[in-house]
């Protein structure tokens, strides 16, 4: 299957998620990668049609939760928030960085190098 990756702006996430939800797409995964900021990829599927919405955000950018649309998204969002330091607001069940018992705050966040 061909990968369909659509790069979107932060403010477009909810409208795209609403459309996909109404069209019957299910949320497959939300993943994060530490780059210059954080790259978030929201993956959806319907009858083998796989759509990825991709956002590139910096450490200060807030992203709206899609958990009101896809209830189980709260797990992905809590994990990304806690491990990468993404600012995700309005998670339906927010663990407030207590999902994991880890000794390091945001262990996967890209650390700024000191000169």
UniProtKB/TrEMBL annotation:
Residues 26-89 form the NADH:ubiquinone oxidoreductase 30kDa subunit domain. It comes from the Bacteria. InterPro entries: NADH_quin_OxRdtase_su_C/D-like (IPR037232), NADH_UbQ_OxRdtase_30kDa_su (IPR001268). GO terms for molecular function: NADH dehydrogenase (ubiquinone) activity. It holds the Pfam family Complex1_30kDa. This is Ech hydrogenase subunit D. It comes from Anaerocolumna xylanovorans DSM 12503.
